[in-house]
Amino acid sequence: MPDGALPVLDVQGLKTVFKTRGGEVHAVNDVSFDLKAGELLGVVGESGSGKSVTMMSLLGLLPMPPAEIRAGRVMFDGQDLLKVSAEELRRVRGGKIGFVFQDPMTSLNPVFTVGSQIAEPLRKHMGMSKKDAAVRSKELLQLVGIPDAERRLDDYPHQFSGGMRQRVMIAIALACDPQVLIADEPTTALDVTIQAQILELMQELREKLGMAVIWITHDLGVIAGIADRVMVMYGGQGVEHAPVHELFSNPQHPYTSALLKTIPSISGKRAARLTVIEGQPPLVVGTPTSCPFRERCSKAMPVCAVKVPPRFEIGEGHDTACFLADPLEIAHAG
């Protein structure tokens, strides 16, 4: 990925709320990030941090109502995806931006063959004939490493293992040669061996096809091996953005530091008790007025309870939404 390359996807100030009987849940709060051609951006955080909702907001995949996108801009291919027609968004979704969901068993239709499900976007988005779509479907199954691809086109999802179903989902997402692939925790339900195979496959496909990837996960260990940059999310906010090596060597947000301490060590020394982050992620009801992490943070200051921290620049491509990065606030706290 060349330095200074223009972003293929540019998200600014995204805000998504859910209207519930208990009030408005602010699931995505002023999230901004970009993605350059050929880059892999890791999006990491606990369950409920807003990772999946953020990405589904980009492509109109949330039910509206109860969801509502309150603000933001999502620039892709010269247009704001939040302002285009439903028909244009359908052309982008699956055509130019692929999405791999977390659970392939619920994402694949059990009553249609795998071949017909791969062929559908080829015929819909690329106008292929039935014959050409079948040929391309076979090539895609081969590309994602499924043996005896031609015969397996006529099989149904239940005839595939979990790892093979996930490969089928990747094949469907890649069918129209997307510029961007969004993978939402695609290895969570798989055992460690299959998970490693899927990660290796995604790395190979990324290098071969040159696409940009957003990889959503709760596992920083996965991110360490595949990402170029990382966005750490908490309470619906992007609390730290950094190149992957910088994030691991110089974490600036207390939540990022706490996450890193939860990764098991294989240093060969006697195993220490794993660190846990006490408490639960917040359910943000109403407009945020404070730092979402303050109640679980050992370094919280009075200002954290009355203001939402802005993003402070730490270095090249590295910023954090934490008042500890502001010398004035540290001085006041002292």
Question: Top keywords for this entry?
Answer:
12 helices; four-stranded antiparallel sheet; 334 residues; alpha/beta; single chain; 33% helix; globular; eight-stranded mixed sheet
Describe the 3D structure.
The chain has helices at 51-58, 86-92, 104-107, 114-126, 130-143, 149-152, 162-174, 192-209, 220-226, 244-249, 254-261, 327-333; strands at residues 7-20, 23-36, 40-44, 67-76, 79-80, 97-100, 180-184, 212-217, 229-234, 237-243, 312-315, 318-320. It has an 8-stranded mixed sheet with strand order 6-7-8-3-9-10-12-11, with helices on both faces. It has a 4-stranded antiparallel sheet with strand order 2-1-4-5, with helices on one face. By secondary structure, the chain is an alpha/beta fold. α4 packs across α5 and α4 packs parallel to α7 (162-174).
Quick structural overview:
With 334 residues, this protein is α/β, with parallel strands linked by helices.
Strand content: 15-25%
Q: What are the segments in which pLDDT stays under 50 over at least 5 consecutive residues? A: none
Shape descriptor: globular
Order of helices and strands: EEEHEEHEHHHHHEHEHEEHHEEH
Total number of helical segments? 12
Quick check: average pLDDT?
A: 85
Radius of gyration: 21 Å
Helicity level: 25-40%
Read across the widest sheet, the strand sequence of neighbours is 6-7-8-3-9-10-12-11
Layout of SSEs?
Blueprint: E1 7-20, E2 23-36, E3 40-44, H1 51-58, E4 67-76, E5 79-80, H2 86-92, E6 97-100, H3 104-107, H4 114-126, H5 130-143, H6 149-152, H7 162-174, E7 180-184, H8 192-209, E8 212-217, H9 220-226, E9 229-234, E10 237-243, H10 244-249, H11 254-261, E11 312-315, E12 318-320, H12 327-333
Parallel strand pairs: 3-8, 3-9, 6-7, 7-8
Antiparallel strand pairs: 1-2, 1-4, 4-5, 9-10, 10-12, 11-12
